[in-house]
Amino acid sequence: MIKRFSFGNPIETEATVVKLPVSSENELTKYIKLSADKKCMTISLEPDDIVYGLGESVHGMNKRGFTYISNNTDDMHHDEDRYSLYGSHTFVLIDSLSGRKLGIFVDYPASITWDIGFTDKDLMTVSLEDADYNLYTVEGEDDLSIIKEFRELIGPSYMGPKWSFGYVQSRWGYKSGDDFREIIANHKKYDLPIDSICMDIDYMDDYKVFTLNKENFPDLKALMDEMKAENIHILPNVDPGIKCEDGFSIYEEGKKKGYFCKDENGEDFVAAVWGGLTVMPDFLRPEVREWYGDLYKEFIEAGIDGFWNDMNEPALFYSRKHLKEVAHDLKTLEERVDDLTLNELWDFTATISGLSNNPEDYKSFYHTVDGKKVRHDKVHNLYSVGMTRASAEGFRRNNPDNEMLLFSRASYIGGHRYGGIWTGDNCSYYSHMDLLMHQLPNLNMCGFIYVGADTGGFSFHTSEPLMTRFLQLSMFTPLFRNHCALGKRDQELYRFKDIDTMRNILNLRYSFIPYLYESACDSAENGKLMFTPLAMAYPDDVRTRSIEDQLLVGDSIMIAPVTAPNAVGRYVYLPEAMRMLRFRSVDDFDDIELEAGNHYVDVALNEVLVFVRGGHQFYMAKPANRTALMEDADFKYFER
Ligand code: GLC
Questions:
Q1: 228 C-alpha vs ligand 1 centroid, how far in Å?
Q2: 172 C-alpha vs ligand 1 centroid, how far in Å?
Q3: Is the CB–ligand 1 distance for residue 202 below 6 Å?
Q4: Mean pLDDT along residues 91-109
Q5: Bond before 314 cis per omega within 30 degrees
Q6: Among 419, 479, 429, which residue's Cα sits nearest to residue 451?
Q7: What is the pLDDT of residue 526?
Q8: What's the CA gap between 617 and 514, in Å, rounded?
Q9: How many helices (H) and strands (E) does the chain have?
Q10: pLDDT tens digits for 34-73?
Q11: Model confidence over 140-191: pLDDT tens digits?
């Protein structure tokens, strides 16, 4: 049973597709206590409650015990002391052993603080900056039906085309068509499947969006024809910020039409991103979305059918205004070199590092919403939704016959209808595999199904065992992309020693694609989870309530990846008897019947575990080196 409550004058976020009537406040569930000013809600937590939700955030699958802030943030440190990541997914689901099952969606695009049993272990406190929001409560018999009802409210999810389930090779630093040719040649040489290659920011002319470095990309159409002949999709990176440069036609046109966010004086707000000083399109205006969405057209006409939208929190390296203030402060540093105290030095360092993504900057520019001026921080989490929507609608206008791939870095609920996401700049840490396991079901319940992480890790240098284990997890996620940062160790799979293992993993992934794609589409259309926590699937088995390192994938299988360094085995809990497939390759695997209960299972570095559930069927196709070359026939079936 879903109910809507509305307070103050909420901004229309378009997160929902069903417009529910507003219930009166006295119909609010007894579990939620609202403060008199409506800016704060408290909910008591029982000792065994699990609190799921908040999509992309740090910590466990069960969010209890920590504080989170829904405020889209460009932060590559996905550490335990962080409150916010790139996406804000403001839905939680409380599951009590006593029978209380309560979903809460706070539809509010500014910052929300969720203290989930942190200050007081038995209390959840949700605090907002203003009392202008819609609150939705969903009560029901079980978690999965609550999620389904919530997902009906927010509408069906975007799903990438089938080819987007193929392997994606990416790294920041590829500069030209020759880099792509080299990757393709090496994948051929070592017989490694691949479907897509990402073009990171270096393809642009001086980081100007929708331009090309003509020296490295003299003829995009010819290159795309060549790539098409190889069955390879090229995916450009697109940033929202538009470089301020006289003569740059996109900048000049947007300026003339008044399409950029404004500062308090009504001038274009200027901040630095990759291209240096840039302006920010006001994606909250339909005419700006239409304009921006059509900017993809030339690339689409050249044959591109997938993009990744980046930096759209929006990330601000610094604002011109703030930099001037800091520069002024720094002048005094020179005079103070001989008698500077440590505290003063730290203050200076903090001033410099505080230049990026500074909260004051987000309060210093404005959007126009329905003709009214709205300060950015009040609608911050909607910025990326506007960009994703602009792209998706542009694709529909300019390439209506083709399915396009789109994934974004920042997001808010509502954006799930227009594109998928990746989980941003993670690190080459084993713990970031655990983090992904925790994020997957929480993202799914908030509507994001086409998702994936930077496999192998973006920042820091990866190792061969870490990459191998990461692939063995990411091979189950819709977006399966190997991506890393500039200057980090080369991590294309053919750079490693045991290429046979890399090939076997990719082949397994390709053979699982029909199953994974069908599961993903089913989840996207029918409000189901693609990745389900065991406790939701086996609610009567209390032992599943604390299992966060195993997940169901689709209806038929359970995964239990190895995420610990140097481990060659792990404990697995089976809530029911299952058939364990321990794959070394598509054709070489152990097939073992396991009883319900605890098991220690050997999993060597070249092995992948798949558990088939009772009464279900899992199937594998014959792999190929491109999804386009796979025939959806010749399946191998595993039933239990
Ligand atoms: C951001 C993105 C990353 C990309 C880099 C350069 O950090 O998150 O994926 O490689 O920008 O474009």
A1: 25
A2: 7
A3: no
A4: 97
A5: yes
A6: 479
A7: 98
A8: 13
A9: 14, 38
A10: 999 999 999 999 999 999 999 999 999 999 999 999 999 9
A11: 999 999 999 999 999 999 999 999 999 999 999 999 999 999 999 999 999 9
Q: Output the six-digit token pair for 629.
A: 């070359």
Q: Residue 314 corresponds to which tokens in the numbers above? A: 């929006």
Q: Which two tokens stand for residue 71?
A: 């405020």
Dihedral of CA 480/481/482/488: which sign? negative
Q: Write out the two tokens for 191.
A: 């017989």
pLDDT for res 73: 97
In this structure, which residue's CA is closest to atom 7 in ligand 1? 425
Across the strands, what pairs with 10?
A: none
Exposure string over 435-453, b if 16+ CB within 10 A, otherwise e: bbbbbbbbbbbbbbbbbbb
Q: Which amino acid is at 379?
A: V
Contact (Cβ atoms closer than 8 angstroms) between residue 116 and residue 49: no
Tokens of 87: 């996406």
- Which is nearest to 95 in space by CA: 446, 530, 537? 537
DSSP, collapsed to helix, strand or coil, labels residue 147 as: helix
User: 386: Cβ–Cβ under 8 A, 6 or more apart, which residues?
Assistant: 283, 284, 288, 289
What is the reported pLDDT for 335? 82
Residue type present at position 384: S
pLDDT confidence band for 495 (50 / 70 / 90): very high
Distance CA 521, CA 396 (A): 19
d(CA 68, CA 413) in angstroms, rounded, equals 16
Whether residue 598 contacts residue 626, with contact meaning beta carbons closer than 8 Å, is answered with: no
Closest CA to 448 of 404, 472, 403, 418: 418
Q: Please give the model's pTM, rounded to 2 decimal places.
A: 0.97
- pLDDT for position 525: 98
Check pocket membership of 57 for ligand 1, CB cut-off 6 A: no
Query: Helix, strand or coil for residue 287?
Result: helix
Going 30 to 36 to 39 to 42, the CA torsion angle's sign is negative
CB atoms within 10 A of CB 599: 17
CA separation for the pair 431, 292 (Å, rounded): 38
* Full DSSP string of 290-331: HHHHHTTHHHHHTT--EEEE-STTT--SEEHHHHHHHHHHHH
Q: How far apart are CA 447 and CA 411, in angstroms?
A: 11
Task: Identify whether the C-beta of residue 92 lies closer than 8 Å to the C-beta of residue 104.
Answer: yes
Q: How confident is the model at residue 396 (pLDDT cuts 50, 70, 90)?
A: very high
State the virtual CA torsion across 111, 268, 406, 520 in degrees, nearest 10: 20
Residue 326 in this model has a pLDDT that exceeds 90:
no
Q: How confident is the model at residue 632 (pLDDT cuts 50, 70, 90)?
A: confident
- Cα(160) to ligand 1 centroid in Å equals 21
* Locus of tokens 């949700």: 126
Distance CA 291, CA 185 (A): 38
Phi then psi dihedrals of residue 388, to 5 deg: -60, -40
Question: If you average pLDDT over residues 596-610, what whole number do you get?
Answer: 98
Q: Return d(Cα 616, Cα 163) in angstroms, integer.
A: 26
Per the structure block, which two tokens stand in for 319? 């604002």
Please work out whether the CB of residue 623 comes within 6 Å of at least one atom of ligand 1: no
pLDDT attached to residue 331: 81
Question: Which of 310, 482, 483, 488 maximizes ligand 1 atoms within 8 Å of its Cβ, making it the mutation to test the pocket?
Answer: 310
* Total number of residues shown for the chain: 640
pLDDT digits (tens, 9 = 90+) for 332-362: 888 888 888 898 888 888 888 889 999 999 9
Question: What is the residue-averaged pLDDT of the chain?
Answer: 96
